[in-house]
Amino acid sequence: MTDGRPEAPLQTLSRGISALEVLAAADEPLSIGELASRLGLHRSITYRIVRTLEGHGLVARDAAGDLTLGAGLATLARNVSRDLQTAVLPELTAIANEFGMTAFVTLLDAQEVVTLVSVEPRAAVATVAQRPGTRHALDRGAPGRATRRLVAREPGELPYETSHDEVTRGLSSVAVPLDVPGQPPAAIAVVYLTGGVAEVDVIGTRLAEAAEVIRRDF
């Protein structure tokens, strides 16, 4: 029974979810010690959390024994906005190969944006991985601001947003709002190494065209 007060969250479950979020946001695999430090937990507690997540395929270890997200997450995410994933993949693939950049779509989640799906180019000298599940604040980065523009119904001076070294040092992004009926506010974007040759206006225009195609055909 309850007395009308909100129930406290399950601490172990909450910690496990936080561990997955930390691993998703990390630029590289983390050791148990690094994960424990970022979670603010004792190493032994973190180890037990990791073992449980490993048992469900949600966390894996690389050759050095460091932690990464496991393949089991792909199964869980398969049906998240499945129709939207299907709709955006052709445009993401085309954009990724046209510009030699990783193309991706993010969705609004509370006060953050989370990567739903990404496509890397078939052939490029250097590409940037944008893993599904990666998230960042709504007020940082091109996808965040593009999504915030959509939520606030603000047109903006340009049809696209840009960011440089905001979310991850050394990376830049271009994004436009993606307004699809029946789906959370979203953005379609590319990410590339800061300083690389990038015709931002051309990319922004192409993203806006892709967003219109996706919205029209959804």
UniProtKB/TrEMBL annotation:
<dbReference type="InterPro" id="IPR029016">
    <property type="entry name" value="GAF-like_dom_sf"/>
</dbReference>
<keyword id="KW-0804">Transcription</keyword>
<dbReference type="Pfam" id="PF09339">
    <property type="entry name" value="HTH_IclR"/>
</dbReference>
<dbReference type="InterPro" id="IPR050707">
    <property type="entry name" value="HTH_MetabolicPath_Reg"/>
</dbReference>
<protein>
    <submittedName>
        <fullName>DNA-binding IclR family transcriptional regulator</fullName>
    </submittedName>
</protein>
<keyword id="KW-0805">Transcription regulation</keyword>
<feature type="domain" description="HTH iclR-type">
    <location>
        <begin position="10"/>
        <end position="71"/>
    </location>
</feature>
<dbReference type="InterPro" id="IPR036388">
    <property type="entry name" value="WH-like_DNA-bd_sf"/>
</dbReference>
<dbReference type="GO" id="GO:0003677">
    <property type="term" value="F:DNA binding"/>
</dbReference>
<dbReference type="InterPro" id="IPR005471">
    <property type="entry name" value="Tscrpt_reg_IclR_N"/>
</dbReference>
<keyword id="KW-0238">DNA-binding</keyword>
<dbReference type="InterPro" id="IPR036390">
    <property type="entry name" value="WH_DNA-bd_sf"/>
</dbReference>
